[in-house]
C-alpha cells in the first residue's frame, strides 16, 4: 500500500451517524483495532470465562487479547483470581498452555515461583538484598457474577459493574453455575472484525433467513424484532407471542424467577441487557425438539420450562441460561479481520454424558447457528473491504439493539479520547 | 451339532454323573484363567446366573474341594466356565493354572447360591466387582445381555492395575453395544497402562459420581472382604435400603486377621535402587535421602530449582515403587494420583523407577 495520511480517528468518531453502521476503517484499520484493544478491551469489564472451568484449586486458564495475556487461577482458598501473565523477573510469559492445573505458578525461564495469590515465594540466586515482596504478579480486576468471570485490565475498573451484579446475581442464582461443568467448549474463528461479530449477534433480522435450527425454539419476535405496519400476519404473530410472554413472565416472576427485560446497553461503561425469553414449542431448551437436552437440570431446578434467560454484555459476550443447560459465548478480537468466538455449554456438574445428556444433541443447534453466523460475518467483512461500502441504515424496527452496540462503542472511544 | 426338535434336552445332573471335561483354557490376565467345561454326552447346564459349584480336584495325593462361580451364563447352556485367580501358595488355584488342560476331567457338584439377579429381579442394578470377584457379576451381566432383558446395569469393575481388570474387553464390548449397560473401571494402584479415571477405594463420592441414582438400584457386590466392607459402609452411611444389598464372599468367613503377620523391616532404614528409564542410570538411595540429592551425588543431572517441594521443577513420573514425599504445595493431589512425584522431597521406600 502507498503511504497515506494517518487516520483521523477523532474525526471518524465525530462523523459517526446515529442509526447507521460504522465507517469502513472501524472494521478494517489496524490503528482502530489497536485503539479497540487499548480502550475497549483494556479499560472495560470483559467476559473472560466461567468458574466451572476451574473446579479445583490450582486449575487455571489463560486468556490472550492482543498483546495482553492474563491467567485466571483458582487458589487454595477456593477464590478465583486473575494476573497479568508476565513474570516479574525479566518478563517471560509465565503460563504457556491454554489451561491446566498447577501447584504454584512457576516461570519456565528461571523458575521464579509464585503463590496462587500472586505472591513471589521462591527466586533463587537473587542475593541478600532482593525483596520478593515487591515482585508479586500484577493483579487484574476480576468479578465473578453468578459464576461468570469478568475481568478488567485497567488500573481502575469501571464501578458500574455493581449494577450488572445487582441485576444478574438473583437471576443466575437458581442455575448455580458455580456447580456446573463445561460439557463442551468450541472455538471458532470468524473472518471478520469483532464489531461485526457483535453486531450480528445483536439482531434477529437475519434469523428467519439463516437459522432454521435455532428457529425451532427461538422466536424472532423475542429480541427486538417488530413486524412492518402492513404485515398483518406478522402483526398477529407478534401479538400472539406478546400475549404468551405477558402471561409466562408474570408466572415466572410470581414463582421467584426475575424475568422482565433490564436494558442498559449504552450511556454507561458496563453495558448489558437481560431478559427471560419465552421459547417456542415445549419451551424448555434451545434444542431441535425444544425439550431439555440434559435430564439433570441445573442447580436444584425441578421445572425445565424456564425459557431462556438471555444476557448480553458489552463489549464481548452473549449467553442463554435454560433449565437444563447454559450456553455462553465470548468474542475475542484476534486481528482487525479475525475474531475468536468461544462457546461453552454448561450442564449440572453431576450430569453424566451419555446417561443424562447426549453431547451432540446438546450442542447441535448452536454449532449449526455459530457456523451460519460465521459465514454471515465473513460476508459482511468482505463487503466492508470494498470502496463501494458506506455506512448503511439499521432497521428501526429490528436493529435498534445493534445501534445500541455501535452507540456504546462510539461513546466509549469518545470518553477515552476526551 | 445336530439338535433334534422333538427330543427334550438332556440336562446335566451331578447326582448321576458328576464329571466335567475341560474343553479350553483361556488366559484373562497375568494371573487369571478361564476353564471351559463340557458335560459328558453333550448334556446341558441349568443354573441361575451368579451361582457357584463345588469342584473336587485331585492334587498332591488327596482330593481338595473348592468353590468356583459358574462365570458363564445359563443362556449358553452347552458349556460352563469358571474363571480362577492364581493365589500364591494356593493348592487348587495353582493346580488348575499349571496342570489342567483340555481333555482332563474334574468332578463338580450341584450349583448353589442365592447371589443372583434371578433371585432378586429389579429394573436397575449396580454391580460392584473387585478382582476375581467379577465372576458372579459377569455371569449375571452376560445373562441379562443375552436375554436382552433391558435391565439397566451399572458395572463397576475394580482392580489394582488396568492390566488386572478381569473381563475388561468383554465388558467394554457389551457396554458399547448394550445401551442399558454402563461400565466404570476403577484402579487402586499403579500399572504400566495409564489411567485417568476413577481411582482408589470405593467412596460415597465415587459411587455417586458413577451412579448418582444408586439408591434406585439393586446392589450386588463381590470382592475381597475389605472391599465389600467398604461398600457396605458407604451404602449404610448413605441411608441405602440394605435389604437391596447383596454380597458374595469367596472366603467363607475365613478370618483374614488370623494370618500371622510378618514383621516388616523398616523401609526407611534400607538402601534402595532408583532407576531412571530415559538415561538408563541406576542410583542407590537410602530411605533418609531425597532422590534428587542422591541422583546429584551420583552425577545424574535432573531439573530442579527450589529443592523444597515448592516450584515443581523436579516433578517426574514414578513408574514403579514407593516413596515418601513431603512437599510444600508444588504438586497437586491429582498429579500425585497420576503417579507424579517431586524428587527433591521424595525418599524411597522400595526400589523405584522414574521416567527421566
Ligand atoms: C462361593 C465362592 C465362589 C468362589 N468363586 C471363585 C471364582 O470364581 N474364582 C476364583 O478364583 N476363586 C473363587 N473362589 C475362591 C476359591 O474357592 C478358592 O478359595 C481360591 O481359588 C483359593 O484356593 P487355593 O486352593 O488356591 O488356596 P488355598 O490352598 O485354599 O489357600 C492358600 C492360602 O491362600 C489364602 N487364600 C485363599 N483364598 C484366597 C483368596 N481368595 N484371596 C487371597 N488369599 C486367599 C488362604 O488363606 C491360604 O493362606 C470362590 C469361593 C467361594 C466361597
Ligand atoms: S523471567 Fe521469569 S524467572 Fe526469569
Ligand atoms: S525442585 Fe522445586 S519442587 Fe522440587
Ligand atoms: Fe445469528
Radius of gyration of chain A: 22 Å
SSE succession of chain B? EEEEEHEEHEHEEHEHEEEHEEHEEE
Q: Report the span from N to C terminus of chain B.
A: 58 Å
Largest sheet of chain A: 7 strands, antiparallel
Cofactor (chain B): FAD
Domain FAD-binding FR-type (chain B): 13-118
GO molecular function (chain B): 2 iron, 2 sulfur cluster binding; metal ion binding; oxidoreductase activity
Domain 2Fe-2S ferredoxin-type (chain B): 272-356
Keywords:
heterodimer; A: 418 residues; alpha+beta; seven-stranded antiparallel beta sheet; 17 strands; B: 356 residues; alpha/beta; six-stranded antiparallel beta sheet; 19 strands; 18% helix; disordered N terminus; binds flavin-adenine dinucleotide; binds FE2/S2 (inorganic) cluster
Describe what this molecule looks like in 3D.
The complex is a heterodimer of chains A (418) and B (356). Chain A is an alpha+beta fold and 418 residues long. Chain A has helices at 9-14, 24-28, 30-43, 161-172, 194-201, 207-210, 232-254, 359-384, 400-417, and strands at 46-50, 59-65, 68-74, 80-84, 99-101, 105-106, 113-114, 120-122, 139-145, 148-152, 180-190, 262-264, 272-277, 308-313, 317-321, 326-335, 338-348. The longest helix of chain A has 26 residues, at 359-384. The model of chain A has no long low-confidence stretch (mean pLDDT 94). Chain B is an alpha/beta fold and 356 residues long. In chain B, the strands form four sheets. Chain B has a six-stranded antiparallel β-sheet, covered by helices on one side. In chain B, strand 3 (52-59) and strand 4 (62-69) form a beta hairpin. The termini of chain B are far apart. Residues 1-6 and 253-263 of chain B have low confidence and may be disordered. The complex binds flavin-adenine dinucleotide, FE2/S2 (inorganic) cluster (2 copies) and fe (ii) ion. Residues 87, 89-90, 92, 107, 109-110, 112 of chain A line the site of one FE2/S2 (inorganic) cluster (FES).
Amino acid at each position: 500500500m502507498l503511504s497515506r495520511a494517518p487516520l483521523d480517528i477523532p474525526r471518524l468518531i465525530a462523523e459517526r451517524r446515529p442509526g447507521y453502521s460504522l465507517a469502513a476503517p472501524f472494521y478494517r484499520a489496524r490503528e482502530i483495532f489497536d485503539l479497540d484493544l487499548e480502550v475497549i478491551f483494556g479499560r472495560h469489564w470483559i467476559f473472560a470465562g466461567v468458574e466451572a472451568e476451574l473446579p479445583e484449586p490450582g486449575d487455571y486458564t489463560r486468556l490472550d487479547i492482543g498483546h495482553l495475556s492474563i491467567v485466571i487461577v483458582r487458589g487454595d482458598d477456593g477464590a478465583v483470581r486473575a494476573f497479568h501473565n508476565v513474570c516479574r523477573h525479566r518478563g517471560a510469559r509465565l503460563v504457556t498452555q491454554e489451561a491446566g492445573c498447577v501447584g504454584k505458578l512457576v516461570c519456565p525461564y528461571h523458575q521464579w515461583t509464585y503463590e496462587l495469590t500472586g505472591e513471589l515465594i521462591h527466586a533463587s540466586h537473587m542475593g541478600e538484598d532482593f525483596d520478593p515482596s515487591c515482585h508479586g504478579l500484577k493483579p487484574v480486576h476480576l468479578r465473578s457474577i453468578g459464576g461468570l468471570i469478568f475481568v478488567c485490565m485497567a488500573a481502575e475498573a469501571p464501578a458500574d459493574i455493581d449494577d450488572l451484579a445487582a441485576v444478574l446475581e438473583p437471576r443466575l442464582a437458581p442455575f448455580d453455575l458455580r456447580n456446573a461443568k463445561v460439557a463442551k467448549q468450541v472455538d471458532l474463528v470468524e473472518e471478520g472484525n469483532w464489531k461485526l461479530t457483535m453486531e450480528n449477534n445483536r439482531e434477529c433480522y437475519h434469523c428467519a433467513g439463516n437459522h432454521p435450527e435455532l428457529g425451532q425454539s427461538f422466536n424472532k419476535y423475542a429480541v427486538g424484532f417488530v413486524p412492518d405496519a402492513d404485515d398483518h400476519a406478522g402483526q398477529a404473530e407478534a401479538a400472539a407471542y406478546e400475549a404468551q410472554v405477558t402471561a409466562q413472565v408474570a408466572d415466572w416472576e410470581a414463582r421467584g424467577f426475575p424475568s422482565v427485560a433490564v436494558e442498559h446497553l449504552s450511556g454507561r461503561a458496563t453495558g448489558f441487557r437481560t431478559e427471560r425469553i419465552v421459547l417456542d414449542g415445549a419451551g424448555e431448551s434451545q434444542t431441535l425438539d425444544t425439550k431439555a437436552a440434559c435430564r439433570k437440570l441445573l442447580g436444584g431446578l425441578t421445572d425445565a420450562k424456564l425459557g431462556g434467560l438471555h444476557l448480553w454484555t458489552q463489549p464481548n459476550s452473549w449467553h442463554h441460561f435454560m433449565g437444563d443447560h447454559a450456553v455462553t459465548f465470548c468474542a475475542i478480537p484476534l486481528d482487525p479481520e479475525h475474531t475468536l468466538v468461544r462457546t461453552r455449554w454448561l450442564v449440572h456438574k453431576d450430569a453424566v454424558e451419555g446417561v443424562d445428556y447426549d453431547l451432540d444433541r446438546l450442542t447441535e443447534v448452536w454449532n449449526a447457528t455459530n457456523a451460519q453466523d460465521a459465514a454471515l460475518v465473513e460476508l459482511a467483512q468482505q463487503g466492508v473491504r470494498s470502496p463501494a461500502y458506506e455506512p448503511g441504515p439499521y432497521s428501526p424496527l429490528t436493529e435498534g439493539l445493534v445501534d445500541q452496540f455501535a452507540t456504546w462503542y462510539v461513546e466509549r472511544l469518545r470518553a477515552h479520547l476526551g | 451339532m445336530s439338535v433334534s426338535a422333538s427330543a427334550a434336552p438332556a440336562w446335566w445332573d451331578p447326582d448321576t454323573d458328576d464329571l466335567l471335561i475341560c474343553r479350553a483354557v483361556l488366559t484373562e490376565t497375568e494371573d487369571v484363567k478361564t476353564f471351559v467345561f463340557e458335560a459328558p454326552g453333550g448334556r446341558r447346564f441349568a443354573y441361575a446366573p451368579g451361582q457357584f459349584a463345588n469342584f473336587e480336584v485331585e492334587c498332591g495325593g488327596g482330593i481338595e474341594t473348592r468353590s468356583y462361580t459358574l462365570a458363564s451364563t445359563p443362556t449358553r447352556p452347552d458349556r460352563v466356565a469358571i474363571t480362577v485367580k492364581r493365589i500364591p501358595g494356593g493348592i487348587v488355584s495353582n493346580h488348575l493354572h499349571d496342570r489342567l488342560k483340555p481333555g482332563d476331567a474334574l468332578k463338580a457338584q450341584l450349583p448353589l447360591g442365592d447371589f443372583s439377579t434371578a433371585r432378586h429381579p429389579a429394573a436397575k442394578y449396580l454391580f460392584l466387582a473387585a478382582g476375581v470377584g467379577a465372576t458372579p457379576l459377569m455371569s449375571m451381566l452376560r445373562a441379562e445381555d443375552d436375554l436382552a432383558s433391558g435391565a439397566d446395569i451399572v458395572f463397576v469393575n475394580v482392580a489394582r492395575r488396568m492390566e488386572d481388570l478381569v473381563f475388561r474387553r468383554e465388558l467394554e464390548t457389551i457396554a458399547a453395544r448394550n445401551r442399558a449397560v454402563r461400565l466404570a473401571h476403577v484402579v487402586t494402584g499403579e500399572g504400566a497402562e495409564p489411567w485417568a479415571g476413577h481411582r482408589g477405594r470405593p467412596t460415597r463420592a465415587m459411587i455417586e459420581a458413577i451412579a448418582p441414582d444408586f439408591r434406585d438400584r439393586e446392589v450386588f457386590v463381590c470382592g475381597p472382604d475389605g472391599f465389600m466392607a467398604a461398600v457396605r459402609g458407604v451404602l449404610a452411611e448413605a441411608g441405602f435400603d440394605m435389604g437391596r444389598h447383596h454380597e458374595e464372599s469367596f472366603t467363607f468367613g475365613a478370618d483374614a486377621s488370623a494370618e500371622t503377620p510378618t514383621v516388616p523391616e523398616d523401609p526407611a532404614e534400607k538402601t534402595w535402587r532408583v532407576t531412571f528409564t530415559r538415561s538408563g542410570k541406576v542410583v542407590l538411595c537410602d530411605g533418609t535421602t531425597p532422590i534428587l540429592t542422591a541422583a546429584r551425588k551420583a552425577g545424574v543431572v535432573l531439573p530442579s530449582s527450589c529443592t523444597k517441594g515448592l516450584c515443581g521443577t523436579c516433578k517426574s513420573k514414578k513408574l514403579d515403587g514407593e516413596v515418601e514425599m513431603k512437599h510444600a504445595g508444588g504438586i497437586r493431589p491429582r498429579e500425585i494420583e497420576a503417579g507424579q512425584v517431586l524428587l527433591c522431597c521424595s525418599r524411597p521406600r522400595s526400589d523405584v523407577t522414574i521416567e527421566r
